[in-house]
Amino acid sequence: MTFAQLPALEVVVPLVAAPLTLLLRRATPAWAIATAACAFSFVAALLLAADVAARGPISYALGSWAPPWGIEYRVDALSAFVLVLVSGIAAAVAPFAWKSVAAELPRDQAYLFYTMYCLCVAGLLGMTITGDAFNLFVFMEIASLSSYVLIALGRDRRALLASYQYLILGTIGATFFVIGVGLLYLMTGTLNLADMAARLPQVHGARPVLAALAFITVGVSLKLALFPLHLWLPNAYTYAPSAVTAFLAATATKVSVYVLLRFYFSVFGPRLVVEELPMPEILLALSIIAIVTASLVALWQADLKRLFAYSSVAQIGYITLGISMASRDGLTAAIVHLFNHGVTKGALFLLVGGIALRAGRAGFDRVRGLARAMPLTSMGIVIAGLSLIGVPGTAGFISKWYLVLGAIEAGRWWLAALVVATSLIAVAYVWRFVESAYLSAPAAATPKPGEPPALMLVPAWLLVAACVWFGLETSFTVEGARRAAALLLGAAP
Amino acid sequence: MIAAGHYGYWITVVLMVTGLYIVIARCNLVKKMVGLSIFQTSVYLLYIAPGKLVGGTAPIIAEGFRLYSNPLPHVLILTAIVVGVATLALGLAIVVRIREAYGSIEEDEILESDRARGDGGGDGA
Amino acid sequence: MSGAQLIAAALLAPALGAIGIALAGRWPNLREGVTLGSAAALFACVAGLLPTVLAGGRPQLFALEMLPGIALGFRVEPLGMLFALVASGLWIVNSLYSIGYMRGNDEPHQTRYYVCFALALAATMGIAFSANLLTLFVFYEMLTLVTWPLVTHHGDDEARAGGRTYLGYLLGTSIVLLLPAVVATWALAGTLEFTPGGILREAGLSGAAVGALLALYMFGLGKAALMPFHRWLPAAMVAPTPVSALLHAVAVVKAGVFAVVKVIVYVFGVEALAGVRASDWLPPVAGFTVLAASVLALRSDNLKRRLAYSTVSQLSYVVLAASVLVPLTVVGAVLHIAAHAVSKITLFFAAGAIATASGKTEVSQLDGIGRRMPWTMGAFTIGALSLVGIPPAAGFLSKWLMFQGAASAGHWTALAVLAASTLLNAAYFLPIVHAAFLREPRTGEPAHGEAPWTMVAALSITAALTLALPFAVAVPLGLARAVAGIAP
Fold it and tell me: Where are the domains of chain C?
């Protein structure tokens, strides 16, 4: 197990852990294997990120077949950044899942959860690390299929329909993506992303290339829940098991954003996407609608999970808003918010999962006077909520800063005003929780005093601490995002 | 450019659109899965049809042949077929569970059932 | 201790004190002791920095680099020194008062109260010592959030509504107006450090752009209560009176006008602004706030509400004076930060003492109360006279400097506003004094004496400070003149 094999091991370890958990058939060993695999992936991702920062991109030929004929795993500034996020969240949610899954799933099915969890992690990590377009599709489908199963495991019967709807829409999305890849293959004769980028200028402006761009955009947008293709998200996040919601909310859409960035800037190139086509304007319009409408809808929700699900749609709008600016600061904002939102939403959904465990459901009727019953959980939600708003001292502020900076530098004052004004909507829905938990007397449905088990509370609070940490000590997130943005805008790989 | 020579692409488009239409227009969950499969099949054709080069022979190296058809799309589509089968199997499994939980596989009846129950219910399958 | 260490100690003392208070929650006397100890320690650290600053030194402390190129850092300069002295000194007195008030009224959640108070003072020190706009913004927001539990202390519907208004106005203005202003300054000037003479000179902005940016700052600093973003201040009166006294007479509102003066002097630059003529709109706006708020104060029967509107008015004195852009008025503005603080806190202390001892909250109920509570009403009179501007109380000196400066600049609007508002101040303060001492109490009212001794002691101390300030004026005046760039 030398360091040179680390890129492959990053994906292979969770992938092999999955059938292992299936064979073991018992919940506790399955959980232990899943947690160990995720922890390994996290450490490996950190090592890879450090190596990339020191020595530049890593190119790993799978099976020693040299690219562009063989499948290449490519770790550069952007993919290393996303790898750390995905594996970090996976490693945080895995310990949480033990008690949470035990409460929400039948005991004899719990090991299946861990099988699917490992597969999902492997799929997402594979999507991030691969440098081959079709390989990306394969990992996309691995991640998607396992996430359909994970969502369907929810206790509420509406989880089944939510999973089915996500399956339909997600498969259409993935199929659109593979159609786009097919068209690109037809035009360039290669599936390796770097090679594709080198060959595309020769067929610049050909209609199949534009069609490929369109198909890939729509396909990936379905996966990243860009308005109006977000309709699967609220139901899927609300009815899935709490651990699943936390994991998917923090990672799945972020990896899809990564795919979008990779194709737009590394493969098609900024010249086509930004200057010749109106992609920035389209993304801008959709992002603004997403932010405004999703934030407003979130305000009226009675269920905490649903509220934060709509909030996620809005926050994804902020990320795509940064992408639409297509400037160095705009892309930095998008990539930083990708990370910061992942950490924030991971923390929020883990804490809400704790409430669901103690109260049965995370509705607003169960949250009245929660500060007395579950003080640590309530305070954690407040801090993560402040990060969602973008209060300085939290990670969300850093993202807001760069978004406003990008808007001002582009001379779009109205956009800067919009970004900050919509933060006020986030204030409103976070404050709904604060008033309910801190200023209301406990209701009949409020859980009895007592925090969720330590194994659930500790990972949640680790992420809450990360929200604050990355708001003050920004060298990793901002530097990583800046380098990734420079890489994307600089030139072809 | 004779459009008829591109009949492979025409069939692809027809299958694609048919599949999508079935997914959107049909309420029956199994029929939606059928539409989805048809939609995915169109992609197979999209990849494989261009792989066959005019005048190309089977991709096995042999004396006297210089032009070979492209074997790579076949490899890719084998993978895609597997993915499609897995998706279909998973989708149908979910439909079976939905049938158990709701007693119906018509989408409108299922949504009506959820609406009738209201937001309060739904704990447990 | 070196300057940097003193700064760190000044920030840590209230923060660690908050932890100590939380831990000592079960033992009220110990808990109160921790509060008083932290307040004393804080004042000692702040006072320790004074000699260096008066001699021209500017101690600084670098904490961490929050964004590339922008650090969370601290630098003590005269304006911040004065603000910190006022806030930390009055915290000690206010803690004494709080003990009497909280126990006298048997308030709930006392530990939470003292913890949030300590954190609020930590945030105030952060604002006072901030070296750049980012640090200021971070602690400014922290102050808003940490004082919300204090405003909603009573937890009933009224508190909830007041808290919503409070948070809505303060967060709304800071997120929507102040944050873009700070980001724009960074984009235009390439730095956020507070620099004498301003940092926007090289940016080459047009007059209109400077005016627009200034407007974003002035209205974005909602804590300065410039109309129409002033409504949070009367809404915050639902808080217990010690909260109103220290925070909404001293810490929170002074943070607002402190930031206003800091932005005008160290971000835009007084001469630069005067040259560009982009700030001509500010004196009329501030003047309008002064007068309108005075009228609203006249029409308020609730004593705390009257004091709140009076605060809105007095804060705009500072803004008005700073916006005249003449060194003498800047000195007056800075001095008024200190003068108004000691005067207003006295008035609020008196209001709280009246409510605790007699349960009365309306001005119309105060007939003859001077007989029953001579100390309290005596202190009230001193505070009122100071705000009207009658010598030898503290408010006289700052008003006199403002008058002089406005006259020397030929700024007739400012002069007219100052004169008119002095009359209005008299109109809404003096009748209270008159009614308290010279009218007979209503028949059928239960007898009562003074409030608990800690409260009376506290308000006596602040009243004494109000009287003493003009005689011990060397230090504040020296600091104020250093801010305005006049040689001592």
Answer: 280-488
